[in-house]
Every structure is written in C-alpha cells, then in structure tokens.
Specification:
Strand order of the largest sheet: 1-4-2-3
Distance between the termini: 64 Å
Number of strands: 6
Radius of gyration: 25 Å
Shape: elongated
Order of helices and strands: HEHEEHEHHHEEHHHHHH
Structural class: alpha/beta
C-alpha cells in the first residue's frame, strides 16, 4: 500500500491543552449533564482514566462534542475552570457533522462484559475481586464466562452482593447455594444469588442455615424459578419463592413484611 494512501486512515486532527473555561458544551444534540455522575466519578478520580476531549473548532469557538462530563469532573476535582485538558481538535466541521459524530460514536464499540472487567481487575491485583475469587474457590467454585458444573457466570451479581451487603452475606449466600443444590444448573444465576442475599440481609441469623438446607434441598431450582416467575419479576420473586418454602409447616415463620423494608 502506498504511503499516501495510509494517510486516509489517520484523522485530520491536532492536540492542544485548552483551559476548561474556554470550552463550550451546550450543543442541542448533547445529552443533559448528569451531576450525579460527575460527583460519583470525581469521588473515584483517576488521572490515568482521563481521555482526550473531542472538540470542533468552529468560527473560533471550541465546541465539545465528546467529553462534556470529563471536563466537569476535572473542574470539580481541581476546583478550577482554569485547569487545562488535552483536546483532540477537529477544524472546520459543520454543526450537523458534529451531531452525526456524537450520535454514532458508540455505534460499533464493543462494551466490556462484566466477566472481562472482573478478570482485568484480578490481573491488576485489586482487592475486592481477589477476595471474591478466593471466596468462590473456597467452595470449589469457578468464576467463568461459560456455564457448567461449579461455575458462576453472574459476575455482576457477586459484586452487587459484596458492595451492598458485605463479605459475610456473600459468603453465606454461596455456602447455602453450594450445600443446598450441590451445583445444580442455574443455582448460581443472578436472581437466585441476589434473592438469597436479600433474605439473609433482611432476616440475619433468624434465617437458619440448617432449616434453609432442609426445606429448600428437596425443591429443585427449576421449581423455585417457576414459582418466582409467577409471583414477581427479578430477584425479589426468588426471595418470595424461597421464603414461602422456608416458612412452610413452620411454627414461627419469618414475616413477609420484613422482606419489603428498605
């Protein structure tokens, strides 16, 4: 391929450091600024995660068409709109071209799967993911992107339980499922894990592990899934289905109302 043809694959842009105060990001085609997102990202600010801001320099004005949240995060963290950011400058774009680029910039981008993100965090040596992996392995379970005996594919559910309920609840959840259904298909699905974690969080030590295994061990995961689907969508339906089975023929049943207490 001739060298002159190679340039056809290089964007006609240049880079500049531009103070945030000199950037404009109020074009109609852009989404509304999410202050909640800005504040959350600022609370976990990582300089290495900052991408160049895409700017269209039109009529001498620097219009941001990709990176409006980035500049607000940096402004918040630095405490100044004088702070410069690296910008990828496109010269002489029309307004309609900016809007088209903005609308289609993610069209062919492949998002990372939760499993891929989890394993990248393992490679990075991040404590949370290493702790979750170690916990799963203590029950002879494998975190995987493919279903199979002893495999957990619902990585997002593992992290959700850990983040919202803590290590102890995740430990009990995995232990109960492993002991009750012994690796049966779908026993480690997201709705099952989240449903049980919710129960353990609501009832604590009042929900007895021995009773759980006795009552639920004779009910298949498929049957629980059917009952859950008839009652309510998502993990709350699983919580209700499991609680129904747990309370059956019990002198002191756990109160259903507690399940809905925030």
């Amino acid at each position: 391929m001739h060298e002159e043809n190679l340039s056809a694959y290089v964007p006609d842009v240049h880079y500049e450091l531009i103070p945030i105060k000199n950037l404009v990001s109020n074009q109609t085609y852009q989404r509304n600024l999410s202050l909640k997102h800005v504040q959350k990202a600022a609370g976990h600010f990582d300089l290495c995660q900052i991408n160049p801001v895409k700017v269209s320099r039109r009529d001498g004005v620097n219009y941001v068409f990709n990176g409006q949240h980035t500049i607000e995060i940096i402004a918040l963290v630095s405490g100044s709109r004088e702070t410069p950011v690296w910008c990828m400058i496109y010269d002489d774009l029309e307004y309609t071209q900016e809007a088209d680029i903005f609308a289609n910039q993610m069209k062919y981008t492949k998002a990372l799967l939760p499993y891929e993100i989890f394993m990248a965090n393992i490679e990075a040596g991040n404590d949370k993911q290493l702790m979750i992996q170690s916990l799963a392995e203590s029950y002879q379970l494998t975190i995987s992107d493919k279903s199979g005996p002893g495999c957990i594919c619902a990585v997002a559910a593992l992290e959700h339980i850990y983040d919202n309920y803590g290590f102890h609840i995740l430990d009990r959840t995995l232990g109960l499922i492993a002991a009750t259904w012994e690796g049966a298909a779908n026993s480690f699905c997201a709705n099952m894990m989240n449903g049980i974690a919710r129960l353990l969080h609501c009832y604590g030590e009042n929900m007895k592990d021995i009773t759980f295994k006795e009552k639920l061990g004779c009910i298949s995961v498929k049957e629980i899934s059917r009952t859950a689907k008839d009652r309510r969508a998502g993990s709350l339906g699983f919580s209700e289905a499991i609680l129904l089975a747990y309370n059956k023929k019990t002198q002191k049943p756990l109160r259903f109302e507690k399940l809905y207490t925030k």
